């Protein structure tokens, strides 16, 4: 009964709520971690991006500074070449030599003298500018004349066939008054040449006499930019106006034309500056600078990952610091969890226990905050609930006990009348001893019914009442019942409820048998263990159907006029449950035509 009462009080939708909502423990930790982690993560992202941008700017600036430095050196180199070329372009000896070749008036001695003087002059230049110049050539407009070639190359090795058919020669003749910078590859020798050329003109007659060509020391260009290659994986490329590569860091593309049209468009539209581009599937920062003297472009490409590798190192350090901060935050969250959640968990656990019929619960606390106030209120509530339930149970038990005592005291007149008639008949037959025994048994039953002492008596005393009742009934029905006993005598001093066996035996005698004969048997057994006692009363009567069993257990007044008292099986079952607990009571087993077994389960009380 207590369990049913509590179920009505404590039935709540907690299971549904728990399936929808996260535990408070996880909410506390999750919210605290989120509130702490989000600013840290945002800070890391901002710091990383700002640092990456800063490092990128520094890398571009460093690349630009290096290019400007090398361009300055390169332009000085170009200016020196221009100066030498200008000297040859306007050299009197050079122009006189070419005019003599065209006039056909000079003698061989004149040719030789001028030729020797020019050769000496060119040799002088090459000897003092060998780091800049490989060769100098004076190429007459008429290739059948005597070209002058001094230095590493001559016009035969430098040109394939007639030099006048070369693009460099044609371009130089076509542009008067300006130097022409060119880069070409000799298909026969597989050599590549960087040249600076200028047209030679007879100003008085505005006649093209030929061109002066300086073959640059390409190794000098290589030396300039090899020294510029940095440790960050960047590469340098020098490209002429025709997009032909004059220099690259690994020497694998010299003489080739760059084929990436999109990249060429970006480079061509940019005099100087930087941009990001994918080169071979790798993101690079490309810096471009154009030489003012030659028009050649110097390009530096640095892989972006190399630029930000230091940023990644900083990011790792920042990540470690952030992880440490998160660890501290987690420890603080755990501290908050222990200080806030544990008392709530203890209180929640106590509430769950309270809902499972355990009312003797008090939660210890020394807190003075809201949690302490809630705990104290809970303790007060459990005390009040316990008091109220105890009061209700005591009231119900007292009511049932009074009802049972009233039933016990109401011995039916018919039973007394029939018993006295049986005594009278026995006396008339002269069986005074039997009459005396019947009166003694009746007095014993009446005395037990009238006694208003403890609700519990010893099993031995309860069996004596049953035997007294059976003795009376045997005389009344002329010993037409066979009653057998099988009792564990170690249980005789156990405490049982008074008058729980007599009504069961009485029901067997009155209701179990359709006719009385010598085969009407009733067996009473008592057995048990360390926890409980079972009393089994079995008859071999007509038995009952399930419907009859249910009605039999519900009816408290089964033909009570002819019975010793008005106590029914339901009364007994309720008394046992009220005094001993819901797990104890009466169970009834029966089948039509097979008799009935009544089992009474009681706690073992000494």
TrEMBL record:
Query: Per its UniProt entry, which superkingdom is the organism in?
Result: Bacteria
Q: Where in this chain does the record put each Histidine kinase domain?
A: 501-606
Spell out the reaction equation it catalyses.
ATP + protein L-histidine = ADP + protein N-phospho-L-histidine
Under the heading InterPro entries, the entry gives: Bact_2-comp_sensor_kinase (IPR050640), dCache_1 (IPR033479), HAMP_dom (IPR003660), HATPase_C_sf (IPR036890), HATPase_dom (IPR003594), His_kinase_dom (IPR005467), Sig_transdc_His_kin_internal (IPR010559)
Output the Gene Ontology terms for molecular function.
ATP binding; phosphorelay sensor kinase activity
Q: Where is the HAMP domain?
A: 342-390
Record keywords, A-Z? ATP-binding, Cell membrane, Kinase, Membrane, Nucleotide-binding, Phosphoprotein, Transferase, Transmembrane, Transmembrane helix, Two-component regulatory system
Family annotation (Gene3D superfamilies): HAMP domain in histidine kinase, Histidine kinase-like ATPase, C-terminal domain, PAS domain
A GO CC term assigned to this protein in UniProt: plasma membrane
Recorded E.C. number(s)? Answer: 2.7.13.3
The protein's topology relative to the membrane is:
Multi-pass membrane protein
This protein's major location comes to membrane
Q: Which residues cross the membrane?
A: 28-48, 317-338
Q: Where in the cell is it found?
A: Cell membrane
User: Which PANTHER family does this entry report, sorted A to Z?
Assistant: SENSOR HISTIDINE KINASE YPDA
Q: What is this protein called?
A: histidine kinase
What species was this sequence derived from? Paenibacillus pectinilyticus
Upper classification of the source organism reads: Bacteria, Bacillati, Bacillota, Bacilli, Bacillales
């Amino acid at each position: 009964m207590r369990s049913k009462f509590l179920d009505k009080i404590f039935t709540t939708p907690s299971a549904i709520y728990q399936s929808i909502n996260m535990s408070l423990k996880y909410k506390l930790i999750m919210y605290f971690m989120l509130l702490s982690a989000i600013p840290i993560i945002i800070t890391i992202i901002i710091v990383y991006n700002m640092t990456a941008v800063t490092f990128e700017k520094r890398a571009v600036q460093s690349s630009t500074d290096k290019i400007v430095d090398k361009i300055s050196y390169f332009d000085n180199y170009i200016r020196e070449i221009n100066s030498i070329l200008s000297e040859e372009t306007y050299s009197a000896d050079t122009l006189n030599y070419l005019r003599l070749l065209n006039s056909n008036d000079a003698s061989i001695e004149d040719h030789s003298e001028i030729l020797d003087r020019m050769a000496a002059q060119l040799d002088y230049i090459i000897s003092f500018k060998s780091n800049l110049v490989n060769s100098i050539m004076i190429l007459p407009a008429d290739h059948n004349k005597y070209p002058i070639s001094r230095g590493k190359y001559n016009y035969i090795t430098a040109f394939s066939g007639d030099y006048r058919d070369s693009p460099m020669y044609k371009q130089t003749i076509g542009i008067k008054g300006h130097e022409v910078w060119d880069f070409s590859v000799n298909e026969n020798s597989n050599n590549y040449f960087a040249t600076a050329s200028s047209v030679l003109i007879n100003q008085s007659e505005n006649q093209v006499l030929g061109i002066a060509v300086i073959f640059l020391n390409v190794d000098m260009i290589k030396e300039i930019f090899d020294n510029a290659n940095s440790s960050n994986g960047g590469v340098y490329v020098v490209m002429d106006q025709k997009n032909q590569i004059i220099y690259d860091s690994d020497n694998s593309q010299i003489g080739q034309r760059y084929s990436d049209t999109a990249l060429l468009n970006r480079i061509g539209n940019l005099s100087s500056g930087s941009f990001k581009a994918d080169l071979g599937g790798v993101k690079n920062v490309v810096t471009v600078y154009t030489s003012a003297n030659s028009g050649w472009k110097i390009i530096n490409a640095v892989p972006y990952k190399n630029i930000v590798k230091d940023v990644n190192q900083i990011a790792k350090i920042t990540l470690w610091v952030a992880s440490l901060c998160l660890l501290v935050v987690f420890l603080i969250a755990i501290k908050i969890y222990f200080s806030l959640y544990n008392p709530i968990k203890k209180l929640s656990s106590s509430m769950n226990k309270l809902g499972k019929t355990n009312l003797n619960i008090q939660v210890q606390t020394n807190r003075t905050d809201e949690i302490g106030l809630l705990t104290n209120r809970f303790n007060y509530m459990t005390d009040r609930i316990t008091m109220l339930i105890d009061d209700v149970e005591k009231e119900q038990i007292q009511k049932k006990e009074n009802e049972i005592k009233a039933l016990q005291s109401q011995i039916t007149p018919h039973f007394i009348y029939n018993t006295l008639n049986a005594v009278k008949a026995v006396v008339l037959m002269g069986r005074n001893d039997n009459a005396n025994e019947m009166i003694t048994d009746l007095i014993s039953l009446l005395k037990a019914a009238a006694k208003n002492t403890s609700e519990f008596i010893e099993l031995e005393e309860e069996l004596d009442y049953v035997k007294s009742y059976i003795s009376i009934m045997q005389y009344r029905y002329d010993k037409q019942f066979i009653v057998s006993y099988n009792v564990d005598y170690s249980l005789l001093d156990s405490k049982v409820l008074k008058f729980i066996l007599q009504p069961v035996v009485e029901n067997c005698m009155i209701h179990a048998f359709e006719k009385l004969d010598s085969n009407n048997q009733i067996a009473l057994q008592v057995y048990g263990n360390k926890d409980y006692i079972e009393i089994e009363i079995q008859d071999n009567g007509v038995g009952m159907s399930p419907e009859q069993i249910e009605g039999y257990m519900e009816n408290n007044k089964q033909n009570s006029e002819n019975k010793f008292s008005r106590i029914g099986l339901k009364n007994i079952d309720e008394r046992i449950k009220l005094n001993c607990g819901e797990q104890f009571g009466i169970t009834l087993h029966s089948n039509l035509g097979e008799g009935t077994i009544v089992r009474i389960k009681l706690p073992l009380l000494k």
